[in-house]
Amino acid sequence: MGCFQSKDADHVITSPDHPSVQHQLESVTEDQVEQESQVPCFKRFALRELYDATNGFSGKCIVPGGEMQALNLVYGGMIEGTGLVAIKRLSKLTWPDAQQFVNQATAVGNLRSKRLVNLLGYCVEGGERLLVAEYMPYGTLSKHLFHWNRQEIPWEMRVRVAYYIAQALDYCNIENQKIYHDLSASRILFDEDGDPRLSTFGLIKNSRYGTRYSTNLTYTPPEFSETGIIIPESVIYHYGNVLIELVSGKHIPPNHAFDIIMEKNAMLLMDSSLEGRFESEDATKLLNLASKCLQKNPEDRPDTESLVSAAAPLQKLEEVKESYFISFLDGSA
Fold first, then answer.
1. What distance in Å separates the CA atoms of residue 84 and residue 50, rounded to the nearest whole number?
2. What residue stretches are annotated with the Protein kinase domain (predicted)?
């Protein structure tokens, strides 16, 4: 056992669904049943298992491009009987009450969806607090959007991310997991089929208080800056920022992007690397959705069901072969 290497020798492998909207949501429900039968049951892991899986939490097993804060590292590892996993090691200081940690991890561990990187288990021993999730072989959206040098993300994949993540947030909302912490491109990963999924690590607080943001305050919702409180509408704001990044391929302060859209200069935000390989009408619709999500007043932002309804008509994936996405993510296209 121990940590594992990617197909690219220089990198450790990263780890931690159009006829109508109604039809698509029904399909996700069917996928939900299938996912529940395929994903192992949520369980408690022994510290020894996770220690061995990561070669003693070796720096060589740290997932590149993931959450790199010194106190909350994510490792890749192999566990006998479970397979490849992502292991998040939380700071010993953030969860002094072990039962609170177990309760929150268990609540998230009950979720099962093909739109999520499902949580497989947890570990609580002594001062250790660890989370174990499914292994995602193709890295984070952040990696491919901002740091990938071989090929730009095609428009079809960007729209797919917007739609699938909207579905993930809507599922979490339905399951009463409405608070997602620090939604960003680094929380979105690609599975073995090349499909984007939302990390469940973001459903668990960075600390027992859940008031700390790890991202730059420039990108946090206005209400958090004013009150220090995270609300469901804050998640919608972050989703809007992800849309801006998907369209632009850049880190752009939400306020600046919002002003550009309101001045009817939305096309100025488009990623030049796309070289016009997108439908302007679809891009405008996606940017308009982003502007609704970035409203200063939380009550003016759409709900998760509205996100799904808005993104669904932009899906034209029947025109794109699955193999194309896989080869793209694999770097072989």
1. 11
2. 47-325
Sign of CA dihedral 295, 317, 38, 130: negative
Global confidence as pTM = 0.85
In our burial notation (b when 16+ CB lie closer than 10 A, e otherwise), range 118-127 reads bbbbbbbeee
User: Is residue 195 annotated as part of the catalytic site, yes or no?
Assistant: no
Q: Which helix (H) or strand (E) holds 97?
A: none
Instruction: Please choose, from the candidates 230, 187, 214, the residue with its C-alpha nearest in 3D space to the C-alpha of residue 72.
Output: 214
> Which tokens in the block code for residue 225?
């800056």
In angstroms, the CA 257 to CA 241 distance is: 9
Distances (CA, A) of 19 to 22, 88, 129, 318: 9, 39, 45, 11
Q: Give me the DSSP letters along 136-173.
A: -TT-BHHHHHHS--S-PPPHHHHHHHHHHHHHHHHHHH
List Cβ neighbours of 175 (8 Å cut-off, separation of 6 or more): 110, 111
Parallel, antiparallel, or unpaired: how do β-strands 119-125 and 128-134 relate? Answer: antiparallel
- By the 8 A CB rule, do 195 and 52 touch? no
Per-residue b/e over 3-41, b at no fewer than 16 CB within 10 Å? beeeeeeeebbbbbbeeebeebbeebeeeeeebeeebee
Helix axes 232-248, 304-311, angle to 10 degrees: 20
Nearest to 286 by CA among 255, 242, 256: 242
Contact 117, 131 (CB under 8 A): no
- How many angstroms from the chain centroid is the CA of residue 178? 14
In the set 17, 182, 195, 271, the catalytic residue is: 182
